[in-house]
Amino acid sequence: MTDIAHPSSPDRRLAWTGYAAFGWAVAYGGFGLVTALTGTAIFYRAAHPLPVGLNWAAVTAAALVAVTTLAAARPRGPRLPRRVVLAALIGLCALVGVAAFGLLMDAITFVFGQTVDSWTGAANRALAGLGVVLLAATALSYRSSTSGVCPRCGAVHTSSTVWNRPEPTPAPRRVRASAYVGAAAFLPYAVMKTTWVLGGTFAGVTGEEMVATHERNGASELWLTLDRWGIDPTALLVALGVFLLLGLVRPWGQVFPRWTLVLRGRRVPRWLPLTPALIGAATLAPYGVAGVVYATLGTAGVITVSRGDFSTVGDALLVTWFGLGAFAAYGLALALAAWSYWRRTRPTCVG
To answer: What pairing do the DSSP bridges indicate for beta strands 201-202 and 205-206?
Structure first.
């Protein structure tokens, strides 16, 4: 175990997170107000802007966050019922999370294309993502402060001198099994992508045709260069995603390995794997589940599926199942693994 300095009191932690979330609400509300008055869309579906009137939803959400965080953080005066404030914080966290949806896709697009579909939309999603973090922190601090538990370890105690990080441990067997299933779900997707980059044919499309499709859709020079070298960029991201998933459920994911030289043997900060894990789970799980529902309805003939760049609807559905089916399984496994990692690495206080 590692001894670390005594954490701040629950009330002080609540005040810091609450006022930080209030400051974010003021900034986000101002952002939504300016864009609404200037007629600039901040919500997009793919690359298509949605009505500017939706900007007022961001302003309204920011106002609700401001009122709620002040009610949670103020140390004196009449307080609203604890359950009401806590439910409001959690609900607003989920609502703002909807506005942040797609942040992961923006990051991937920027890495490989040095641009995004809309800078205004990306700024909105980045701001909303920050709001989710601050609201979640405020909700946790409020829960700890009003229930008398320690904000660090979640236990009830009157005093503590240090808090300890537990020794690295693997996740429970069921969590590890779900992680292996989530990783294995990408095998069909990897086979499909590898077939294309090696010049083969899959779902009626050759590798050359897929490169031409990427060019037609405005892929960056970096993306096209990797394609020509026989390296699929999404396959690289899949490899990183699987590495992250397995690190969340195995002990080596809590300690820097030997090849990190200076850092080897030191504990991995909890936020380092949890940040991409939570962003990935919040994006890929709903995106993949919605895609599986869409593919299921399309396969059953309930809805009409566009064939897109493929020769037949059947080919389009096959690629959808391979891609979005993997996202669904991986996203759900990532969410479960992140929750397990958060619980297993949570510090404990000692007197």
So the answer is: antiparallel
